[in-house]
Structures are given as C-alpha cells and as structure tokens.
Amino acid sequence: MKCVSAIAAAIATALTASAAPVQRQLATCAFPFAANNTDQVVAVTPESSNAGWAMSPDQLCTAGSWCPYACEPGYYSAQWDPSAALYNGPGSMNGGLFCDGNGQLTKPFNDRPYCVKGMDNARIENTLGESVSACQTIYPGNEAMLIPSVAQANGNVSLNVVPSTYWLGTSSQFYVNLAGSNATQCIWGNADKPVGNWAPYIFGAGQAKDGNTYISVQYNPLYKESGFSVQTTYNVRIECESGFCNFPTGGQCKCEKGVCSIENGCTVTLVGDAKAKYVIY
Description:
Blueprint: H1 2-19, E1 41-42, E2 65-67, E3 70-71, E4 75-77, E5 97-99, E6 105-106, E7 115-117, E8 122-126, E9 132-137, E10 145-151, E11 156-158, E12 172-176, E13 201-207, E14 213-219, H2 221-225, E15 236-242, E16 245-246, E17 254-256, E18 259-260, E19 266-270, E20 275-280
Parallel strand pairs: 8-20
Antiparallel strand pairs: 1-3, 2-5, 4-7, 5-6, 8-11, 9-10, 9-12, 12-13, 13-14, 14-19, 15-17, 15-20, 16-19, 17-18
C-alpha cells in the first residue's frame, strides 16, 4: 500500500507541475555597438543587465520598449520616439532605438546619425589632482544620471551642450561628483552615498530658441539637505573663453566655499558663438 501511495503521490505532483502556467520570457535586444565604434556611442555598465544601454544597471532592453544609448563627451543622441511630444507624458521615456516584438532594433530617424556633435561651446577644466565625473541625465529616458564625462586630474573634458533643435527644446543636466570620482559613480545615489543625483554640484547647459546658449552652476540641494558640507568640497567658476559671455550682476558666476555668487546658483549667457569653461579648483 505504501508503494502504491508513493506512486500516486508522484503522479499527482507531475500532473500539478504540468498544469502550472508556463511563463514566457520576453525577447530582448542586444546592445549593437562595439567598443571604440565610429558612431561615437559608448556603453554604460556593459557588465550589468542593461548590457551597455543607457538604462539602469538592472534594466533589460525588452521587446516593445525604447532603449536609450549614450554618446561620448560632447555628443548627443539624435534618436528618439518621433511621437513623443510631452515632457512628462507618454513617450518621455522613449529615447534611443525601438526593440520590436521579435527582438529586432529599429532606428526611428534613418537620415540622422546615432550621435551628433553638440554646440561645442562649454567644457570642464579640472585643476585638481584627482579626476571628477560629470553625469548627464538620460532624457528622453528614465532621467537617471548615467552618461559620464570625466575630467581627469589637471585635464579637460567637453560637455554635451544640446542645440535648440534637441527633443522638445530640452537642455542638458549634469550631476557633478566629488573629486576622485570616475565613470562608475554615474549612478543613482542616496542620502548616505553622495554620488549621482546626490553629487555636490548640478551644471545645466543648452541652446535656446534665441540662438544663445545658457550654462549654469549650483550646489545640489539634495547634497546640502543630507548634511554634506558644501564648504569643504571643491569650488567652481565659469570663465569666458571667447566671444561675448553675459555674466549676472557682479560680473562673475561661481560657487566657492559653500556660497554662490548668486543665491541658489547662477547662469551665464553665451551669445552667438561664444565659448566658456567650468573651472574646478
């Protein structure tokens, strides 16, 4: 009887298992760009689940979704959902390439390259003895600060200043990390981890419809609210390199020893072809 009961139990278990619903795994799209490609596309955390896409490290590029990618410093992505027409509405996450139901990638604007050179009128000059990473937010996309532009010790790096023709006229935003940071710190931070969206500085840059470019610097409110000291971090000032740069009242724009020349940050207008730099000191 025990043998019969054991057989019956085994059959019941097998029937239950066969009746369980089979979960179908969504198709995914592989990151199609090789290292050092000629498209100026760079991989973001390629060893993680995002596999190089400019998405959160645990996020897959799945069928039926848009998958943003990052461009090298000074370049911006020229591909996004053509139907995305609202800043915070449907489509605001739809940057990059479309992964269809079969796991095939579609390029929405075939007449454009993947990456286009930006305004080329702003850069970071790092006078410190350690590197500093500026982390650009993904927009359109999940707005995570994942695209790195790293100014090496005593070095320079171009910033991606987008033209007025960029998606819905939006500008670029950079969270600028502490001294000693690199591309791996271009991630979501938290109140205990001052990197990414908890970095000490925020830089903004973009061309407006009037043809002028506006660049700004401020201390990150999250950094200050979390108890980190802006007095002891490095300083930043904007300097004009060529052309006419219109500075705010007082003729300067800087954040130094915890105080900005204009309360809550300042903005400099680069008129026409003017160029400027953020000096980290």
